Amino acid sequence: MTYTDTLTDPRIATALGQMFGRAEQDDATATRLPDGFTALTPQEQADAAAGIYMPISAAGGELLYSLVRAVRPTTVVEFGTSYGISTLYLAAAVRDNGTGRVITTELSEDKIAAARRTFAETGLDDLITVLEGDARTTLGALDDAPDLVLLDGWKNLCLPVLRLLEPRLRPGTLVVADDIDLPDLAPYLAYVRDPANGYRSVPFPVEDGMEISCRL
User: Fold this and answer.
1) Which of 38, 119, 160, 177 has the highest count of CB atoms within 10 angstroms of its CB?
2) Mind listing the pLDDT tens digit for each residue in 178-193?
3) CA distances from residue 201 to 1, 126, 153 in whole angstroms, order as listed
4) Measured between alpha carbons, how far is 163 from 198 in angstroms, rounded to an integer?
5) Is residue 32, in this structure, part of any structural domain at all?
6) Beta bridge partners of 215
7) How many Å apart are CA 130 and CA 91, to the nearest integer?
8) CATH number, domain with residue 162
9) DSSP-derived secondary structure for 47-77
10) Percentage of the chain with pLDDT > 70?
11) SS3 of 202, please?
């Protein structure tokens, strides 16, 4: 039996390896963030943190790949491209499914430019649309209902972005949030874990944790 696994493509494996390697310097780079960083606007934070990769873990990427392969979404929406590590996992799964697309969002112009170069170099750019600017605006014009959502941008914005997308979420849509150990994600977690809000939600133990929520 034959099967496809685009993650084994040398172009993608090399790109992921290089970016994960650079991300090992994130802690050192973060020490150079300006005082009062948390008081900045999302755009100002994105510009100040343009050198920080903020990646999902490799295990988290493998989980995302498997979820996309299983769900076979027509539209994947990602909040927070950064340098495109998670986007590559999502797009590789879409490629192997033979159908679908990835719509991803990012504030930093530097990160957008770098991510687009990576998407082209890995041959996945035809599957990926990058929306530039604040996701609370750019995703408001989304045409199609997403079948899978990854929330991995600024943690305090994950709940507003989910609420923005919610009218378009069909029953069975999966919503995945990364870094559930971070305090800023607490309001989001409280929301999706409350049955009154229409989700069945479970934490998954990879790195800083992922929350997988099914829209009911």
Assistant:
1) 177
2) 999 999 999 999 999 9
3) 35, 32, 19
4) 12
5) no
6) 199
7) 12
8) 3.40.50.150
9) HHTTT---PPPHHHHHHHHHHHHHH--SEEE
10) 99
11) strand
